[in-house]
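User: Before I run my own analysis I want an independent prediction to cross-check against. Here's the chain; please return only the structure tokens and, at the end, one sentence I can use as a sanity check.
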Amino acid sequence: MISSVDQYLTDGCGRCSHFQKPSCKVHLWTEELIFLRSLVNSTDLKEEIKWSQPCYTLNGKNVIIIASFRDYCCINFLKGVLIEDYLQLLTKPGENSQTSRMLKFKKNDVSQKLMEQPELILNYIHQAMEIEKSGIKLPEKVKEEEPPYELIEQFKLNPDLEKDFFNLTPGRQRAYLMYFNSAKQSATKTNRIIKLIPKIKSGKGPNNIKL
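Assistant: Structure tokens:
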């Protein structure tokens, strides 16, 4: 386990076999990481190591993580969904990420130009700090709906149905799953699924149904 950001920069995060080796991904972004660290440390955020990465806190609350990957390094704003992203620079860490947002830096001209304008990056950092100070609550996470057993059984009987279902937009998939899962009895779920198979196959959403 590493104990400081200085060690992180020299040895790596310690979470894989590349620790303390030149091949560690941290060493791909040394210049950028040092630059980002200097910006964050110019604020009142406290520097710590958490999850083997540089983490910056305010009054004991995690606000920012600096991270490195093979293709990019980034500032991860843990409540980034609340930041006013007027430049449209923030991205989701993953498709299902609901609250955190990343400001990525790559080996390209766009990132280089951004690094030449530290005041823009600091604006995002200061926004994150003000959000933490305000005590504003994050929006509630959307519950992920799981396909019921009865739908899985229909997929086994009709492989084309499975393909058609997952070709639907995420919103339509979720609407169907909410409708199916709202039934208490297995037989009711099966009846609902069978009744709506034509709509699923036509690529339509479950319009005019009551949960």
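Sanity check: The helical segments are 5-11, 30-41, 109-115, 118-134, 149-157, 159-166, 170-181, 186-201.
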